[in-house]
Amino acid sequence: MKVKEKRNLILSIVAVLLCCLYLFILESDSVVHSYAITIIERSCIYAVAAVSMNLIIGFTGQFSLGTAGFMCIGAYITGVLTIPVEMRDQIFYLYGMASWLHDIKLPLIVTLILCAVVCAGIAALIGWPVLRLKSDYLAIATLGFSEIIRAIFGWDGLGKITNASYGVSNIPEFKSIFECVIISAVCIVIMILLVNSSYGRAFKAIRDDDVAAEAMGINLFRTKQLSFVVTSAFAGVAGGLLAVYMRSAVTSTFTVALTYNILLMVVLGGIGSISGSILGAFIVTGSQEWLRFLDREYTWSELIPGIGNTGFGAMNVPLLRNGFRMVVFSLLLMLVVLFWNHGLTGSKEITWDRLINGAKKLMRSKKEKAVSEAE
Amino acid sequence: MISYLLQQLLNGLSLGGAYALIAIGYTMVYGILRMINFAHGDEFMMAGYFMIFSLAVFPWYFAIPFVILCTIVLGVVIERIAYKPLRSAPRMSVMISAIGISYLLQNLANYLFTAMPQSYPQIDILKHVYTFGNISVSRVTIIAPVLTIVLTFLLIMLVNHTKLGMAMRACSKDQETARIMGIKVDNIITTTFVIGCGLAAVGSILYFTDRNTVQPYSGSLPGLKCFVAAVIGGIGNIQGAVIGGFIVGICQIVITAMGYSVFSDAFTFALLVLILIFRPSGLFGEKAVQKV
Amino acid sequence: MADKNVVLNIEHLTMQFGGVIAVNDFSAQVKEGEIVALIGPNGAGKTTAFNCITGVYHPTNGKVDFCGETIANSFKISHTPDEITKLGIARTFQNIRLFPKQSVFDNVLIAKHMRAKQNPFTATFRLNKSEEQRSREETWQLLKEQGLDKYADWEAGSLPYGMQRRLEIARALATGPKLLCLDEPAAGMNPQETDELAEFICQIRDKYNLTVLLIEHHMNLVMGISDHIYCIDFGKMIAQGKPEAVASDPKVIEAYLGTQEERDA
């Protein structure tokens, strides 16, 4: 046992160091590697959102779909409080920024904490009536909430604060890739610690059997409330990070489709597995980039060189045009739900033991194949 | 002033009628499968697109039944592909599957018909405008509530006084026992989807004729509102869903008329929260007792 | 009545679901250290009475006092199940309700959550390690005492049936109860297992200073260990007293076996 634990610790340290090394390489020449950097930053931010969604859906068994709404709140708070003071008049040229807000500029970390606090407070308010009831109503109420948030932030009446439908732009970007990765990592680590604590066990008890959990002295409402509040707080932080990443906060980013996209990451990674959600976030974000070609119109000659002379080459490849990528993604989500509903990780955490055992099995089967072929 | 109020009231009734027809689909599916059919709003959106294409080919009296038929086929196919394999899966999987279908339909519409709003064809017989003094109403505004009430009446007759209706009620009470009693539960579920989608198609004609455009996301918010309407009326209760639909529709028009159109959606969800606090089983729902 | 403290006092408990009166004007007392059984044919309202005591249902009428505190009454101010567990009433379920996908150890550990002196902040940031440590040690202790320690890493759902019942009792004990409510603990057990269970119940009563309220069909089990028996039928109490007295009560026999004429017919 002890040897294994030591080995796992060493492996973890090595893995973290390798990641750091890779990030250093990217950072050392951030112009050349800008594409990789954007993908990694985006993945990290979505990983925070996905893990936070998994906390309530996968660990507490409550179906909350408010992620986009809370991200929207976080994004606007971060946007409004971090844009440089001298640019504000220019950005808010139409409405003029409210004077009490005009000169308040906070460091990123402080605004992110503020995002978490505000989102937690709002979550506590809407959770109070809704969490007492069945999980279905939570889904509808949070989905509705997220649409309301969008409407309110885009409302002319709040133009002095949110710049209404124009949104907030010119948000200062991350100082380096480390800023984004470290903040995301800290958020995820906090959630992992919570899930593995006594409260995390209470979440799982409610998910598995709420009547029995209650008989064990777990206060259903307060525990669900805690989970919902933490989920929303981290969704708010993820929204803040996303605003910094995109350098703008506009309501059209935070549609229900964003929530669905994050749900795809959670389901693909495995509901109830944090490492799965992180993996899901990276895979979905990465492949959404790689599959961009699906959104472009190609002629056959562009795809297969040499075919151009046949007259066939000038024709467009069927299906490929704007929007096809998202169709492929939604089909993917359906396939995972229908045929592979445990996701990539089978709802369990990825551990070194699992990885090594898996690798061993793979080696063995290859060896056996080789042996049988030799015979 | 009074004419303005009356005008708004008529508009509210018309919108409420469309909402009521969609809400019936939610409430019936929830009653039998205990799931929120998140895709229902998008089926309604697709019905809008079907109308655009079928009216380009057929005259209106062929186009309307054709659209209803297409929507029913779409709904039944969705049920077979996405919900039936998950009958014994946890309820959350079914809901995720429904969300997946909703996402797929939206993206598909976006891909096939582009994100630009398409103009909804004008059906002349529906658009005929009557004028009474200061009030001018199109025929659809009058037809909508009347048609809704007639269809609801027929549906309630079906549910309460036919063998099929009895089987449906049995399934919603207890599927296992209904199965043992020799009811083909899968057929009943299909029937439910047929009725729900048919009504949604009718609702979509009433709704879009007044709104003039269809776009890929125009189903999602009305869909949510109609589910709220179903909850307000007491989920699983058809009359309740209709009354809930009218309440939501009229409230929306009244609030918009007062100049707070931003908050008309917010109000619907505030209504949901209020209902959940004070009457969790809805206005007409039965209180459920949990078995331990 | 004067010699021992009354732990649980049920007065005129009535529970009505729509037109069905599941429990009708039921009164009973459970004294400290006793094993009290609640018997009756299927559908007599035993589990409903139980659910009123443990806060799952709010009674239509009447009240339940536990150690002098009213825990359930007809007003909306009754306690919720978790509050009642905290006061010291633990229960098991008729159809076992473990957390089947979690380990045996975790199943018991969950019961320690309610009494741990922690808040979400200290728990997340591990500021109170001794508390977590203590919970884990107590859980080990309990598993050892119940002979479940060798299964600690098993998935609870994969245990044999009898073990699952025992685990459910262990989990209830882990909440630190004064009163243990067992809902048909012998259901699905063969005679030998039932005898072992009877012995086990007496053992844990003495070991943990418990009072036990028991719902059971098995007359053998009930007769052997109970100090007092209440028999209900169609929600109404039809007999109470010492086991021998209840066993020979004609009304009880009638409720279980039907009237003489029905038997002759």
From TrEMBL, chain A:
InterPro entries: ABC_transp_permease, LivM-like. It is found in: Cell membrane. Coiled coil: none annotated. GO terms for cellular component: plasma membrane. Pfam families: BPD_transp_2. The chain crosses the membrane at residues 9-26, 63-85, 106-131, 137-155, 176-195, 226-246, 258-284, 323-340. This is Branched-chain amino acid transport system permease protein. It is a multi-pass membrane protein. Keywords: Cell membrane, Membrane, Transmembrane, Transmembrane helix. Its main location: membrane. It comes from the Bacteria. It comes from Pseudobutyrivibrio xylanivorans DSM 14809. GO terms for molecular function: branched-chain amino acid transmembrane transporter activity.
TrEMBL record, chain B:
It comes from the Bacteria. CDD domains: TM_PBP1_LivH_like. The chain crosses the membrane at residues 12-32, 66-83, 95-116, 136-159, 188-207, 227-250, 257-278. GO terms for cellular component: plasma membrane. One of its GO terms (biological process) is L-isoleucine import across plasma membrane. InterPro entries: ABC_transp_permease, BCAA_transport_permease. One of its GO terms (molecular function) is L-isoleucine transmembrane transporter activity. It is a multi-pass membrane protein. Belongs to the binding-protein-dependent transport system permease family. LivHM subfamily. This is Amino acid/amide ABC transporter membrane protein 1, HAAT family (TC 3.A.1.4.-).
From TrEMBL, chain C:
It comes from the Bacteria. Keywords: ATP-binding, Nucleotide-binding, Transport. Coiled coil: none annotated. Residues 8-259 form the ABC transporter domain. GO terms for biological process: D-alanine transmembrane transport; L-alanine transport; L-isoleucine import across plasma membrane; L-valine import across plasma membrane. The keyword Transport applies. SUPFAM superfamilies: P-loop containing nucleoside triphosphate hydrolases. Pfam families: ABC_tran, BCA_ABC_TP_C. PROSITE patterns: ABC_TRANSPORTER_2 (PS50893). InterPro entries: AAA+_ATPase (IPR003593), ABC_AA/LPS_Transport (IPR051120), ABC_transporter-like_ATP-bd (IPR003439), BCA_ABC_TP_C (IPR032823), P-loop_NTPase (IPR027417). GO terms for cellular component: plasma membrane. GO terms for molecular function: ATP binding; ATP hydrolysis activity; L-isoleucine transmembrane transporter activity; L-phenylalanine transmembrane transporter activity; L-valine transmembrane transporter activity. Transmembrane segments: none annotated. PANTHER family: AMINO ACID ABC TRANSPORTER ATP-BINDING PROTEIN, CONSERVED COMPONENT OF ABC TRANSPORTER FOR NATURAL AMINO ACIDS-RELATED. This is Branched-chain amino acid transport system ATP-binding protein. It comes from Pseudobutyrivibrio xylanivorans DSM 14809.
